[in-house]
Amino acid sequence: MVGVDRAGVAAGRPQFVVADAISVGATLALDEGAVRHIRVLRLDAGAVIGVRNGQGSIGAGQLVRISKTQAHVEITEATTVSPLPAVHLLVPVADRDRMLWLAEKAAELGVTSWRPVMWRRSRSVSPRGEGVSFQAKVRARMEGALAQSEGAWLPQPFPEANLERAILAAPAGDRIVLDPDGEPLVGPSVAPLVAPVVIAVGPEGGLESDEIDDLEQAGFRRRSLGPTILRFETAAVAALAIARTALGRGSVTPDE
Question: Quick check: helix, strand or coil at residue 157?
């Protein structure tokens, strides 16, 4: 039995990310990666798949015109999903494999944007995740996670930046820097989170005192996830999950 997701579009089907707007009656081309996936799954023309464009549009349709290098889907259902309350993530430039894992999990949790920060202790890491080719890998991981998690909105990935630039580019809102010595991230003794939320995660070894000072001067509040020292990817996932739960979720609007 095929389930129905919260947007009203049938779930449980193979999911693919497309680049174009999704509307009933449109025929959309799938990229080469999607075509390879279709071949692995041994899907034939007429099979029903789910699609999403990462910009709030999701839908379903039938595969048509399948070849070894091309495939198209004719859209039969379409729905628009409102964005989740905004949660922006400042992550450390760090070990590239761990950053890619975090990019995947952040997309599953519906992070709004992702910006790597070159903290002072990031510079000693090798091999670290940075540069244009790494950014492409981050986006690919996020797209795969979006399809797997049946999300509607792809995170906005930004290139790495130094702390000064990251602070200047950070959206206004509830600004948090994770710090074991801070107050709890959520709880009866602290003010509730209010979107948009910006969460800064430090590197392995922690932030330098002057980096914390710079963040606090920019309106970031120190908040803790508990008494133990967490790896950066663990801390980021935990903070995102807590923020998502605290802020709730968006709404959906069936397309005409």
Answer: strand
Closest to 54 measured CA to CA, from 33, 80, 73, 76: 80
pLDDT tens string 183-223 = 999 999 899 999 999 999 999 999 999 999 999 999 999 99
The DSSP bridge pattern shows strands 72-81 and 27-29 to be antiparallel
Residues 16, 147: contact at Cβ < 8 Å? yes
Stated as kind and residue range, the H or E segment containing 51 is: strand 48-52
- Whose CA is closest to 247, among 115, 86, 99? 86
Half-sphere exposure of 209 (CA within 13 A, CB side): 0
Do residues 55 and 80 lie in contact, with contact meaning Cβ atoms separated by under 8 Å? no
Structure-derived torsion over alpha carbons of residues 10, 15, 21, 23, reported in degrees to the nearest 10: -30
**CB count in 10 Å sphere of residue 10:** 14
> How large is the C-alpha radius of gyration of the chain?
20
- The model carries a pTM of 0.88
* Nearest CA among 22, 82, 75, 25 for reference residue 52: 22
Strand 156-157 and strand 113-117: pairing? parallel
Tokens describing residue 26: 């449109």
**pLDDT tens readout for residues 47-81:** 999 999 999 999 999 999 888 888 999 999 999 99
CA angle 190, 196, 198 (to 5 degrees): 75
